[in-house]
Fold each of these.
Amino acid sequence: MELDRRQTYRAALKARGVQRVMGPRAVSANQLTATVGVSQETLSRWLRHARSVAGMTPPKQRTPTWSGAEKLRVVFAAEGLDDAALGALLRHEGLHWGALIEKRWRAAHPQDAREGPRASPAHALTDVERTAVLALANSPTSRDGSPHQIV
């Protein structure tokens, strides 16, 4: 009779391992496999299972929709604040510094509706070149290769 070569781990060890990789002070999977002695394959299986169980995956964060008045309110509230107070305001509003800079700029330039460059770059592919590249990339010989291998 042949023995099953797979080692069985306790549920508590699995839960601690998943928590250490996915938790707030997460360690890398490589670090955990080295310290606990669990193979990378086993740890990956535990993580896949944990993500498939209801409630284990964090909810998707919804991007807040800001009205124009709300944007202006935050921009005006941020004016003249020192770094500590500005940081507290940004955390309270759930904003990053870059978002505040963008909101300040948009408030100062409401008529600006730029969407990128109007002219294509000098090195852009022509329609014929683009078609040829796509045909090569989708050909049976190149279909399964990475872009690096195709070029």
Note: DSSP finds eight helices and no strands in the chain.
Amino acid sequence: MSFLAGLLVRAAVSMAAVSDSLLYSEKYRPQYHFTPAHHWIGDPCGTIRHNGRYLAYSWGAAQSDDLLHWTEINDHAIKGLPKGTAAFTGSVVADRENSAGYSHTYVFHVYVSRSSF
């Protein structure tokens, strides 16, 4: 392994272990908006208050009780897409009336995608 590749691997491992307290003390990191620990957030295209909790979806997902303190749920909210399919913007809808028949607590994630043909 080259010196540069080894350095990049060590840096990635170090960043994975960084705690939220350190992340939110970074000089240019927003303090009152959710920012993911790693990667970029994209546009927050699915925000909703559901079952007493705020949820925000973009390339990842986060939840909050007060809109100030966020917990990252995952860093890749849209999974299982067919090979060659890219997901872009979308939205979130809570099915409170159970009109789809899944549950009155079900949340649908809808997104726009493009497939390569």
Note: The mean pLDDT is 75.
Amino acid sequence: GKYDLEGVSMYQSKLDKDMRCPIKYWQEIFEGKWKSCIVCVLAEKKTLRYGMIRDEIGDITDTVLSTDLKELLDNGIIERKQYEEMPIRVEYSLTEKGWSVVPVLHKVCKWAGEYYHDMKKDEEEGSKGKECQHLVNWNKMIE
């Protein structure tokens, strides 16, 4: 049956199975194209309201932004502080766990910037790749 002799389930949840590789945990938290951008923006700006995050990122929809913010909250990457004012003010910032991923994102961004031009055959020979401006600014602040 479903249970072994000690009554422990012989089946693991899909998530437990996938966690055999730590990269799966990363993928679970940062799936989609905007979550890492949200973290980069908050790393540079420290604390932002919803509309300011949307303005910094640019072409993200409200539906995607609110879903991604909720998932980042649920995973302990960001925190949400609500002020009891009228109108209600809500601010988002990185948690300690969120700050711990910023150097990783910086390295990924740097790697992507170096190899981005390899994908673009029509760019000039020897052109530099692109870098995330939020991470560039954050890096200048910590130097």
Note: The longest strand covers residues 78-83.
